[in-house]
Amino acid sequence: MLKSGGSALLWGSEHGEVAAARMSLEKGADIQCMTADGWTPLLLAAENGHGSVVELLLAKDNLDADSNGRLYNHHTPLSRAATNGHEGIVKLLLAREDVDPDSLDNFRRTPLFHAARKGHSTVAELILATGRVGVGSLDEFGQAPLSIASENGHEAVVRLLLATNVINPDSQSSYGRTPLWWAARNGNDAVVAILLATTGVAPDSKDKYGQTPLSIAAENGHRKVVKLLLAEDAVDPNSMDKYGWTPLSRAVANRKKAVMRLLLERGAIDPNFKDSYGSIWLDAAVMRRRERVCSSEAAACEECRRPRLYRRK
After folding, report:
1. What is the CATH classification number for the domain harbouring 75?
2. pLDDT digits over 142-182, tens only?
3. Which Pfam families does the annotation name (predicted)?
């Protein structure tokens, strides 16, 4: 990270060499000096988890503890420490009045967002304890900390954020995607179960393209998630997206055999579908045969890898 010719202070901060950093400061090194790509000593120390160096730097009167240097992403030392889960450094930074716990980077993401994204529940708890953060603040793409934690399957962070009781558990991104939608897409069944048990979560909400959590889970072959969603009375198993595709047709097109069987076992499933052009159908007899094939072994399963989509006049 450090460019050739960097000062001893930058080198000591990056590598956790307290003695080198202290000596450099005593000799008059600029505490706000930067690498060629905009990293200050404090940013380097916070990034790499060097608490002793951070303490040394924070003790200096002329330090800007909230400076993002000239980083392209505008991350502050707190953002970097939160991203990497450095709890001790997060505590040190949050103890200062000149550090904004809710600072925004160039994607409008806060330190809490970064902690939630990486699953650092203790760091997220420390930030929340300041009482000075927007728990449900949205980034440039409309995602909240709960949404990104759900997308990445961080169960502890999801529970922590929901426990604040000040967020919308069904907030939508720019594409209309909720925390449940993201959890379903990535097969995070534990998070899906938590969200389904949360008041205010719509289990059958549609995104910009009309896809529901069930549809996206079926498309990606997440059987456990599909099973959880099918158990919800409010979920329509035949819901069509804007292209006329149902959860079953998504599963067939992507050759998700286990999900196909699960959907077909659900009595309300309609195995025929018609797309928005009104020309492509999935024959009910083909699907009934596919159900039998998927329950068998050996060469017959080769059939399942070739969805039988065809045109009817």
Report:
1. 1.25.40.20
2. 999 999 999 999 999 999 999 999 999 999 999 999 999 99
3. Ank, Ank_2
